[in-house]
Each structure stands twice: as C-alpha cells, then as structure tokens.
Specification:
Layout (H helix, E strand, L loop, with lengths): L7 H17 L4 E6 L5 H7 L8 E6 L5 E4 L3 H9 L5 E3 L20 H9 L6 E5 L6 H9 L5 E4 L1 H8 L4 H24 L6 H14 L4 E2 L4 E4 L20 E6 L1 E3 L2 E2 L2 E6 L5 H20 L6 H13 L12 E3 L23 E9 L4 E10 L4 E3 L8 E2 L1
Parallel strand pairs: 1-5, 3-4, 5-6, 12-17
Antiparallel strand pairs: 1-2, 2-3, 7-10, 8-9, 9-12, 10-11, 13-14, 14-15, 15-16
Helix pairs in contact: 1-6, 7-8, 9-10
InterPro entries: Creatin/AminoP/Spt16_N, Creatinase/aminopeptidase-like, Creatinase_N, Pept_M24, Peptidase_M24B
Keywords: Aminopeptidase, Hydrolase, Protease
GO molecular function, one term: aminopeptidase activity
Length: about 400
C-alpha cells in the first residue's frame, strides 16, 4: 500500500489560484467555513478536517492564508495536520457544548483576527464560501468588523479553482476509487440470500479501512427490494431475498478525497421490467462515457442522456443529469444539466451518476473518471453489467 500524500506545494498553489480569482472580481478577503459533515473547504485549502469544533479559512487578496478553529484541542490538532501554518482560535468556532478551559488559551474574535490577516487594508468587498451553511453568529461577528464592505458569495470562485485537478490530486483520487472498487468486490463476494443489508455494508467498510481509507465519502449503504426506490437510503436489518434488486452505494475517503461506486445486482433472475431498467441505465452510462471528452459541451451530454430515456418514456424516471464533479466532496459542482453549459476540460474529475426509479424500485450505477488531453481515464469499471449472482 503506497501513501500518496499531497505535497505542501500543491496546497500553497491552491491558495494562489484562489487569490487570482479574487483579483479578477476585486475581492479583498475570502472567508470559508467547515464542519465535520461539510469539511470540503478546510480539506481543500488546508488538508484539515475538523471534528467536535469547527474550522474556517481566511484568504487575503495578497499574503498568507489563515486557518481558524476552536481550541485548545483543535488548535493542537491543527498545528500537527494543517498545511496552512498560521492558525488562530476564534471563540465561535468552538464546539456547541464547550467546557471552561483550564489551560490559558488565546481566544479571539474577528476584531483581533482581521488585522492579522489583511493588515491595515480596509476591505471593500469580501466573499463568503459555504454561502448556504455559513453560521449566522460567525457572519455577524465578521460583518460588524467590516461594516463598509460589500458581501458576496465566494462559492463560484472556489469552484473554478477546484474544478481542475492537479496530478497529485488525480493520483490520490484514483486510489480512493481503487479502494472503493475493492469494497464493492467484497460485498458481491459475500452476498447471499438471508444476509442483511447492514452485513454487506459492514463487509465493504472493513475492506476500505484495511486498504488505508480514512473513512467513507458519505454515509454509505446497501438497500434491497422496495428500499431501493429512494435515491438516498440507509442500510437496515432487512434480509436479502431471492430475485430482488439490491443496491450497493459505496465510497471510500482517502487523503481527504472521495471515491464512489454504485452497482445493483440480484441473487437469481430479477423481474423482467427491472432487468429492462438495468439495461437502459447501463446504456445511459456507456453513452456518457462515450461522449465525455475535452472540448465537449456539458449540455450535449445531458441531451444524449435525456433523449435515450425519452425513447422509453422514462425521462421522468431520473432526478438529474448523468454526471457531476467530485473531489474533496463527493458532489463538487459541475452538474451536467440542461441549462448550465460549460466546456469539459482536461483534469476535470466526474462521477458518471445514473439514477432511475419507477416508484417501486430504483437503481444507481456510478463510476469515476478523469478527463485527459485526448479522452477519459476510467477509475473503476469493474462489472459494469447486469449482475446476477
């Protein structure tokens, strides 16, 4: 097992690229927020995932980025693991049931933090990222100390930086998918009539951890029968039955990056209408893999997907387009949709994500790819077929 740790230089380059985007939009200060469940900002810019406490990243248009966290526990952890080396404790980034600290701890608010980040500059425009989840009290403390600044969303700026992956990122992502694929293989190996959904999930988790994953990309699951009709689900104690559809939805997290792989199978011959859905879904995936190339317009991929489903009257059987970006978040912008065109470029990483449901059963086939200069590289093509055990 090879450790594919991303270099400090790669992280520093990300901050510089974000500063370039800030200059284009005359943004003087960019501020992002992370929690344990939504850690993509601190993971991407600092390689740091908070837990118990929260984390923030402040990036001035010029100069050094700063990591904010609670303390003193998270402060000590951040000093060890953060790639951003300037770390400050903000009192509102502490866990919601914080103790009264015994050791002396310098706890600040933005009145003391802002001058350490931007010096004597008076920002005219600040950008907030994680716009829809940025905490109100932290936002209040920020804007009251920058009373004359225009406040805008910083999400698109960061997405423009994240959408093109470095070589180091791509190799880490490839390993996350390799681990994920091995976990799916294990679940298929041990699947049999009478085992529970939760048993299959746990077998997959064991493989992920044994192969070096830090955890999962999201709360993974296995579901079967009518449980498959929901796009999002949880594993239960339900036992797998003969001839029914079973959905595996697995993703391993490695070095902060997400793998993802989804397969459906049955033990014994499935219902003919279910088998037809499997064929249509698999063809949709092959269509997307065939057309996704550098220079292709994202809406053209969507149109091919939509038209394929429309042949069967199934265009309403799906929830969204056939692919989305991925990285430190399992879904990372770049949705291939009807009305949001963008040009597919080399070093973009996508999940081909095909979901169909008819109200009784549902199925998802999902695999990862990276766009290359001449085509695509597939991360996990294992058993992209009708699987009958």
């Amino acid at each position: 097992m090879k450790n594919r740790k991303i270099s400090d230089q790669d992280f520093q380059h990300r901050v510089k690229r974000l500063q370039e985007e800030m200059k284009k939009e005359n943004v003087d200060l960019w501020v992002g927020y992370s929690s344990e469940s939504e850690a993509s900002i601190s993971l991407y810019l600092a390689g740091f995932q908070p837990f118990f406490d929260f984390a923030g990243v402040m990036v001035p248009r010029e100069g050094e980025a700063v990591l904010l966290t609670g303390g003193p526990e998270s402060y000590e952890m951040a000093k060890e693991f953060s790639r951003i080396k300037k770390i400050l404790i903000h009192g509102l980034f502490v866990e919601t049931s914080a103790p009264e600290w015994v050791p002396d701890t310098e706890i600040l608010d933005f009145s003391a933090i802002i001058p350490q980040v931007i010096g004597r500059i008076h920002p005219k425009k600040i950008a907030i990222s994680q716009w829809n989840t940025f905490p109100y009290l932290i936002f209040q403390d920020l804007v009251k100390n920058l009373p004359n600044a225009e406040v805008v969303s910083g999400d698109e700026m960061l997405l423009r930086v994240r959408q093109i992956k470095s070589k180091e990122e791509i190799e880490v992502i490839a390993e996350a998918y390799r681990i994920t694929e091995e976990s799916v293989k294990r679940a298929l190996e041990v699947a049999q009539i009478g085992v529970s959904e939760r048993f299959l999930e746990n077998e997959g988790r064991k493989v992920m951890l044994d192969l070096g994953a830090e955890g999962t990309s999201y709360p993974i699951w296995v579901c079967s029968g009518k449980n498959t009709s929901r796009s999002l689900c949880r594993s239960t104690d339900k036992l797998i039955q003969a001839n029914e559809l079973v959905q595996i939805t697995f993703g391993a997290r490695y070095q902060g990056y997400c793998g993802n792989m989804c397969r459906v199978f049955s033990i014994g011959e499935p219902d003919p209408k279910v088998k037809k859905m499997m064929l249509v879904a698999l063809q949709s995936m092959e269509d997307a893999l065939e057309i996704m190339r550098p220079g292709v317009l994202s809406t053209d991929v969507f149109k091919k997907y939509h038209n394929h489903l429309a042949k069967y009257g199934w265009e309403k059987f799906t929830l969204y387009g056939p692919a989305h970006g991925t990285g430190v978040s399992e879904v990372e912008g770049l949705w291939l949709s009807e009305n949001s065109p963008f040009v597919i470029q080399p070093n973009m990483v996508f999940n081909i994500d095909i979901w169909l449901a008819d109200g009784e059963v549902g199925m998802r086939y999902e695999d990862g790819i990276v766009v290359t200069e001449k085509g695509i590289r597939e991360f996990n093509p294992y058993r992209r077929e009708i699987i009958i055990l």
